[in-house]
Design brief:
With 359 residues, the protein is α+β, with helices and mostly antiparallel strands. It has two domains: 5-139 and 243-358, no CATH class; 143-229. 61% of the residues lie in helices and 18% in strands. It has a seven-stranded antiparallel sheet with strand order 1-2-3-4-5-6-7. Strand 2 (149-154) and strand 3 form a beta hairpin. The chain is elongated.
Amino acid sequence: MMLTLLDRLIARHIIHSTMLVLNVLVTLAVFFVLIDTLKDYGKAHFGMFELVKYVVLRQPQQVYELSPIGALIGTIMGLSTLALNSELTAMRAAGVSVARIVIATLKVGLLFAVVILLVGEYIVPVSENMAQTGRARALETPLQKKSSGIWLRSGTSFVNISEVLPDLSLLRMNIYVFGQDNRLHSQTAAQRARHEDGAWRLEGVTETLIVGKEAVQTRRLAEEVWHSALTPDVVSVFAIRPESLSLQQLHYYIGHLRQNNQDTRNFRLAFWQKSFMPLATLIMMLLATPFVFRHIRSGGLSHRVFIGIMLGLVFIIFHKSIGYFGALYAFPPMAAALLPILLFFALALYLLRRAARGL
């Protein structure tokens, strides 16, 4: 894709303005994450360093979610700067069409879309995992997540959990019971565990008892009740959050949940929302162009920025609410993720046509 002098001029203004807007939005996001996290400050080992580390690691997710509104306001500011300096007027007088300027803007949008896709795929999953795991470790949550799964110590027993499903049932659990002499007395393996009536109901149980120094007794049970201080609220810390997964991870995990008869709607919705996030950023930049062309001979930068902020907020609210209502009323996740984008795309085309006729 060849970039002309016009493309580079427009790209420089839009990128500079968008970075400025994202810095402001991220600063606000830092404030809200900090306020939400302060309730844990001072607990266990969650001190100032852990607090700052958690807030910083949460920012890639904030940047990812705020990218559409950042691109919208940044494009309005960048193009408005060109308009206030009479550069857009000079372009139009030199015979540059509205479509040509829009194409130059969308070239920048394609760059932003690729960056957002890479951030969502490779940076957000890693940073979110580090943030949540580090927070749980600093708060001395009785669970520790390692490559071999989740580990819990309860008295003289150690529990290993391979996975926490969305309904907070547990997969592939192993319970190791040690005696006062620190020797292993028994191991209980269960394929699945569900919390019912204040206790865990283990399914597909294999119980191994160590008798003497070498003798071992094994028995298999369809079900067994296990009483423990471990509660669903505790294990929910390590339940997988759909927004923290990449597209590849979501695709794999949705299939995994189906095999375990789990509800996949929230994960399918997250998959399609992530898939369409680069497109949403591109549409927001397209939506920004009509507001600049309609006032190409006038000032009013603050007015345009205000309009951009309002449109961005409407998009975020609409995007989130459609997703929630779609999950609640069994609306197809792909349609729920795509509908807000299509509506704003139609609005952008309508406003752009009106702006082109008015020039």
